[in-house]
Design brief:
- By secondary structure, the chain is α/β, with parallel strands linked by helices.
- It has one domain (7-60, 72-125): 2,3-Dihydroxybiphenyl 1,2-Dioxygenase, domain 1, CATH 3.10.180.10.
- 17% of the residues lie in helices and 35% in strands.
- The protein has 2 helices and 8 strands; from the N terminus they run βαββββαβββ.
- The strands form 2 sheets. A 4-stranded mixed sheet has the order 1-4-3-2, covered by helices on one side. Strands 5-8-7-6 form a 4-stranded mixed sheet, covered by helices on one side.
Length: 130
């Protein structure tokens, strides 16, 4: 398939805080690639699971205000248990942006703000979602 997204980036105000948040919630790791730029490893190096890795970098300008909406692509992470991960997000300092809702006969979806004010989603496949 052509033209697939192969890398994502998260801009942050506090890299250590953001790495702790995403490490605690999803188990991601962050090798340092260069000054003010860390990799985001979402799985083992040679994993056969679908998905991509990314990068974490210092935000170059102020983030949008909370009610202003997103000025970027929003990434959604597939999870096995929506409620378990949602609890981890809130425990790690994240906030609900849009509560859990059903995508009829397909999945549970919801959106959150990380500790840096970035929006992201979580998605649990469930053909019985209503």
């Amino acid at each position: 398939m052509k033209n697939r997204v192969v890398h994502f980036e998260i801009q942050v105000d506090d890299a250590e805080r953001a790495m702790k948040f995403y490490g605690d919630v999803f188990g991601w790791t962050f090798p340092k690639f260069m000054d003010n730029y860390w990799g985001i490893m979402t799985d083992e190096k040679d994993s056969k699971e679908p998905g991509i890795n990314g990068g974490l970098l210092a935000r170059p300008c102020p983030p949008p205000k909370p009610e202003q909406g997103t000025n970027a692509f929003v990434c959604t992470v597939q999870v096995e248990n929506f409620d378990e991960i949602a609890a981890k997000i809130e425990k790690a300092g994240g906030k609900v942006a849009m509560p859990k809702f059903a995508i009829m006969n397909m999945a549970w979806q919801g959106y959150f703000l990380d500790t840096e004010g970035n929006t992201f989603g979580i998605h649990q496949a469930d053909p019985n979602a209503k």
